[in-house]
Recover the amino acids of this structure.
């Protein structure tokens, strides 16, 4: 059974750096084609893709947020970490991590997702 | 980035009736070399994370009821729920992955019971 769980602070102050950890089980990020991604959802709003890391340690970022994001993995711990710098109240959202089952032929869909973690940015 | 739009924003359908959700991309997501449409659909129930329903525009994920179907090609796609059940009340999102990354989601369509 594949599971993912997000962890990190529930509250951060403006200008601070957010660090989120995705801990997963049921698959290995060293398997060819496997990826883990971060997606966020402001309250009552739509989904926004943030970043992805693949089995080969290639990293991809949202066009609008790439200067603020860093994604990394620790394969031995089955963890993926996302950092976002210079947090602002507009970054208040539920942050999800999700698996990309196989990037074969460029197929990038997300399944399954973690339950998400709500991050509020406020002073 | 490819922009995704959905229509309607919301709809209310009677139990057992058909629900149709439309998704449009700002450019074609059909890859000519493999004739695949790089589009997925998700269902998000209140308080839950999204759940994958369909990928490659029309391939149903394992375990998804067959009342859910995806169709379309190029820039215009449809998610159809053939006979709406109470448990189908949710927001539905389309997502393109043609550009590999960044992928983009539609704004969502809320489905309720009439």
């Amino acid at each position: 059974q594949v599971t993912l769980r997000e962890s990190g602070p529930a509250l951060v102050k403006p200008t601070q750096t957010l660090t989120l950890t995705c801990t997963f089980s049921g698959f290995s990020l060293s398997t060819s084609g496997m990826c883990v991604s971060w997606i966020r959802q402001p309250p009552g709003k739509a989904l926004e893709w943030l970043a992805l890391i693949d089995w080969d340690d290639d990293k991809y970022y949202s066009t609008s947020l790439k200067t603020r994001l860093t994604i990394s993995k620790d394969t031995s711990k089955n963890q993926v970490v996302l950092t976002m710098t210079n947090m602002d109240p507009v970054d208040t959202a539920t942050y999800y991590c999700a698996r990309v089952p196989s990037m074969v032929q460029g197929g990038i869909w997300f399944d399954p997702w973690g339950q998400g973690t709500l991050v509020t940015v406020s002073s | 980035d490819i922009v995704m739009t959905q229509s309607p924003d919301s709809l209310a359908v009677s139990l057992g009736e058909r629900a149709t959700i439309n998704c449009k991309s700002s450019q074609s997501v059909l890859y000519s070399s493999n004739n695949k449409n790089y589009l997925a659909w998700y269902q998000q129930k209140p308080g839950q994370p999204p759940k994958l329903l369909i990928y490659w525009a029309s391939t149903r994920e394992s375990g998804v009821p067959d009342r859910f179907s995806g169709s379309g090609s190029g820039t215009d796609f449809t998610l159809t729920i053939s006979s709406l059940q109470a448990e189908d009340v949710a927001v539905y999102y389309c997502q393109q992955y043609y550009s590999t990354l960044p992928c983009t989601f539609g704004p969502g369509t809320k489905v309720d019971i009439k």
Remarks:
- Chain A touches chain B through 23 residues (CB under 8 Å).
- The CA atoms of residues 8 and 20 of chain A lie 5 Å apart.
- The beta strands of chain A are 3-7, 11-12, 18-25, 35-41, 48-54, 59-61, 69-74, 79-84, 93-100, 117-121.
